[in-house]
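Hey team,

Sharing the CDP-alcohol phosphatidyltransferase run so nobody has to redo it. Sequence (323 residues) first:
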Amino acid sequence: MSDLTKKDTVAFAGQETTSFENSLKSNDTEEKIDIWFYRPIGYQIALFCAKIGMTPNTVTIISIFFGVAAGILFYSQNLGVNIIGMLSLVFANSLDSADGQLARMTNNKSRLGRILDGAAGDFWFISIHIAICLRSMNEGWTALIWIPGVVAGFSHVVQSAMADYYRNVHLFFIKGKSGSELDNSRELQREYDQLTWTQNFGMKLVARFYLNYTNLQESLSPRLQKLLMLIRGKYRAGLPANLITDFRVQNRPLMKYTNIIQFNTRVLFLFLWLFMDQAWVYFFFDIFVLNPILIYMCVRQEKVSGYFYNKISNSKEYGYQSI
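Structure output:
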C-alpha cells in the first residue's frame, strides 16, 4: 500500500485530502466487496479528481453516463457486448464510490450532492430495466413483461431508499449529525417552502423530489421516527456514550441486510443471468427475493427502534442532556 493510504493527510490543488480509512463512511456500514474492491478503486479516482480540482458532483454526473450506457449495452443478446456493459456498470459504481470519498476527503459535501448521488443509481437502473424489457420482447415475450419490469423498478427504489436511510440512521447514532447524511421531512419542508417556482424553479423541483423521497423513508419507519424525535428533544447536546454503544450493538447486525438489497448482490445476480441469456429473471429476483429481505429488514429495524424508545422513555439509564 502506498504512502497515500496511510493515516496522514495529503494535499492536492490547495485542498487537504484524508487517508483511505477516513474516506470511508464507517466499517459498520461498508460491505466487504466495497472495502476490498470498490473503495480502493474509488479512493484512487478520488485522489486523481482532487489533484485536478474535479468536484464530487461532476464525478457523480459522469457515473450516470456510464451506468446508463451499461443498460443500453444489456439490450443486446451478444454476450461480448453485455460484458462491456458489465464493465461499464462496475466503473459507474466505482465513480459512485469515488464521489462520496472525494466529498469526505475534501470536505465538499452538499445537499445537492447527496440528491445527485441517489438519483444516479436510479438513472442506471431505469436504463437497465428498459433495456431488459425491450430485450425480452425481442426474445418472444409479450408487452406484459413491462409489468414485472415496472414493479421491480419501484421495488428497487424502495429497497435503495430504506437501505440508505437505515445506514444513515446508524451513522447518526455512532458518529453524530456531522458523520451522517440523515435528513428529516420537517426541515426539508421548511427549506422547500422558502424556494419559489419563479426564482428557484430547478432547485425547487429537485427539493420536491427529495422531500417525497424522505417522506417515503419516514412513512415506512414509524417507530424509528418516534425514537428520533425523542432523542432530538432529549439529547440536544449529544447522545450519551452508553446509548451509542448499546445502539451500535443492537443495530449493527441489521446493516448486512442493507448491503444485501443494495448494488452488489443484485448486480452479481444480474450478471449471472446475462451470462445465461435469461436477463428477465432479474425482475423476479428483485420482486420475490429482495422484497422479502426488505420487509424483514424494516420489521427488525422497527423492533430495535421500539426497544430503545421504551428504554429511553421509561428509565434514566441514559441520563438527560440538554442545552
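DSSP finds twelve helices and two strands in the chain.

Ping me if you want the raw files.
A.
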